Amino acid sequence: MKKSLTLTIAVYNAVTYLEFVLAALARQSMNDFEVIIADDGSGPEIRTLIDRVKSTAPFPILHLWHEDKGFRKNEMLNKAISASQTDYLAFIDGDCVPHRHFMRDHWTHREGRSLLCGRRVNLSKQITEKLTVDDISSGKFEKLSLSVLLDGLMARSSNLEDAIRIESPALRRLLHRNKARILGCNFSVRKQLLENINGFDEEYQAPGIGEDTDIAFRLELAGARLVTLRYLASLFHLYHPLTQVGDTNRKIFERVVASGEAVCRNGIRHLEEHA
User: Fold this and answer.
1) Tally: H helices and E strands in the chain
2) How far, CA to CA in Å, does 173 sit from each of 100, 132, 166?
């Protein structure tokens, strides 16, 4: 039976983190979705985990994999777009554990040409290392426990306010008046809009900018509107060392901005350059 929406999870190794993500997805308040794991060349442990989880998961899982030849995340995301069986797509990373209502929030707040931009709580190394699968399955991880609050006061965990879920649209607007901005680990959009701009630009060969800033910029050029989902669709980002954005990615994005072209040449389809 065809599902309503597709969740793409971008992964590279970190099998324990993916186990946490899948455990959180198993307790979603909405189960009418499929999962595509866009695997940028992980080792066999990821496949073993997926094979174990698939038999009991309340959602179908498709594992897409290619050989590890360096950072090719955008290529895998494009493969996921092509493989998806629904018309609405959400994207997270394999180190981001979704709140129980994550999928429902992205689905119920979708709009015609909108790009829904969620936020995330950043958990410290100390909090992350204490997490267990039981913490995820029980929903304990969603609660701002005293230890997490103290961790935030010590400036180790951050953005704890983004764990708060507010149903009232008026109250959300009152609390968050800034322009929506995208995080590559938490957004959703109609599949057709991504296809219209030829998906993710595979010219980006390193993390940062290419999976979020670039895609948002080109979607806006194509007429999409960024809409914030702050205080809804929360994610809990598990600790890893900070990733630095290199100069190469910045230069690629500068060229994109200067060109003013929404459609990338090297995306879902590899287009010939203009003569």
Assistant:
1) 11, 10
2) 22, 35, 10
